[in-house]
Amino acid sequence: MNAIAPLPAPTDSPLLHLHPNDNVLVAKSALAIGQAIAELGVRTRAQVPAGHKIAARRIAQGEQVKKYDTVIGVATRDLEPGDYVHSHNIELVDYYRDPAFGADVRPVDYVPQAERATFQGFVREDGSVGTRNFIGILSSVNCSATVIKQIAAHFTPERMKTFPHVDGVVAFAQTSGCGMSSPSEHFDVLRRTIAGYARHPNLAGVLIVGLGCERNQVDGLVDSQGLQRGRLMRTLVMQEVGGTRATIAAGVEAIKAMLPAANAARRSTVSASHLKIGLECGGSDGFSGITANPALGAAMDVLVRHGGTAILSETPEIHGVEFMLTRRAITPEVGQKLLDRLAWWERYAAGQNAQFNGVVGHGNQAGGLANIFEKSLGSAMKGGTTPLRAVYEYAERIDESGFVFMDSPGYDPVAATGQIASGAQLICFTTGRGSMFGSKPAPTIKLASNTAMYQRLEEDMDINCGVILDGELTVPEMGQRIFEQILRHASGGATKSELLGLGDHEFVPWHLGIVS
After folding, report:
1. To pair with 173 at 20 to 30 A between CA atoms, which of 82, 255, 289, 310?
2. What's the N-to-C CA distance of the chain in angstroms?
3. How far is the CA of 143 from the CAs of 176, 191, 303, in angstroms?
4. Is the peptide bond before 157 cis (omega within 30 degrees of 0)?
5. Could you count the other beta carbons within 10 Å of the beta carbon of residue 47?
6. Helix 292-305 crosses helix 475-490 at what angle (to 10 degrees)?
7. pTM (2 decimals)?
């Protein structure tokens, strides 16, 4: 299998031949019914949208269908050359996939430290480096969500003019914290997520607000997660302070006390080795695995060579192609930990009409992705080609450099929340249909898979990877361009989602347990 081979040289053909072993071809643009396919000597017998597939040769019923030399299903009937191939005639059938732990591990050609790329970041007292300089307010429970929003709302742009070096005061409200089993996995995940934001280098100061009678007690949260109260890490409990209005007033005063110190922070030149990038995809299409995802993977290979960290997540979206990662695991233990997380997901999703069991979203299907195996094939490419160094639980603090994996659902806000909690200072988000996602305190960079969508949604898109399909850049060239733009955004350059004010409502910790 060669899942990240470069695209062939541009031709006049309306079809993409991704790998010599493939028995499907991908339409670069929409094919009309009856359109002549010169290389197959046939005419199409159906309309085929851009990004969708046709049969490259006869495929017998029950035969494996291959794209990028990777199985994406089996044919449910005999298919003739030129037939439209999609979810109506492909069936998802699981099959044995040899994990071959470490078989594809190759040493990284690291850039010497003195020659590594740099960016302008905020160096914190603990040595971590931020790309933004927010003050954050966190709720231990949904019962204090309105209060933290009201505290943040006090700090209007007019009031913040006195503190030009602070990016803003942002409230991270959440919908859990009580009515849950404790101790439990859900309880641990919530606390780990809140703590990950509380210690995030993109936050210069933090205020945590609780109600007082919730299961997720503020004192228990602080103690269990090793958080340290101080001038830039404060807590309030509404029932102790005196209720809603008193807590809002006390919270405003607590933030006012933090602002001078936060405003005193300045950017300085730091190595790109400090960067941790969360890798996301959403609204994927048939071009995502051909342009944006492999190009982002190429950028992550560059980042890893400069000492940085790339965080792949969305565990359901590696289902079917997990061998692409286990073959790059630095030890059998790392590879097995990834398989263990997939086994957990198989139990978790059993009997459900969920993505892990094959059903992808409407937009994915409309964009040309027949099932989860085909979607996973593109999704996994975001991780590039370097060794898989570690596998982490959701929101677990990442302490390895290089390419790593963090377990999460495929739901973008939940996955990105976990990545940020784990330490990601930026999110790179590929999309084919057009995602409008944004995040705080780590901003999101959005990468379009095709030029038509980029032009239609340019106000939301940061980078057009469709130029690969257009023949203007190769995947490695696009990867280098992405890496350079990451450095600009890490240095303070605003992303499109920041300019649009997104990120105030996208803090969504993973809910795993019962509500009672």
Report:
1. 310
2. 48
3. 9, 16, 41
4. no
5. 13
6. 60
7. 0.97
- Angle, helices 145-154 vs 244-263, to 10°: value is 50
d(CA 13, CA 36): 11
DSSP alpha helices (H): ranges in 88-175?
145-154, 157-160
Rounded to 10°, the helix 412-422/185-198 angle is 60
- Which residue in 53, 45, 93 sits closest to 320, CA to CA? 93
Return the DSSP state at 393: -
Cβ(283)–Cβ(435) below 8 Å:
yes
How far is it, in rounded angstroms, from Cα 340 to Cα 440? 31
Residues 6 or more apart from 181 whose CB is under 8 A from it? 187, 513, 514, 516
Quickly list H helices, 124-231.
145-154, 157-160, 185-198, 218-224
Beta bridge partners of 448: 431, 464
Taking Cα atoms as reference points, which of 381, 493, 479 lies closest to residue 426?
A: 493
Q: Looking up tokens 């046939």, which residue turns up?
A: 42
DSSP string for 78-94: -B-TT-EESTTTEE---
How many helices and strands in the chain, by DSSP H and E? 16, 23
Q: How far apart are CA 101 and CA 426, in angstroms?
A: 30
Are 479 and 306 in contact by the 8 Å Cβ rule? The answer is: no
Record the tokens describing residue 78, joined without a space: 């005999």
Question: Phi, psi (5° rounding) for residue 48?
Answer: -125, 110
CB atoms within 10 A of CB 67: 27
| Closest-CA residue to 410 (of 340, 502, 345, 497) | 345
Per-position b or e across 31-41, b if 16+ CB within 10 A of its CB: beeebebeebe
Strands 268-271 and 233-237, by their bridges, are: unpaired
DSSP label at residue 500: T
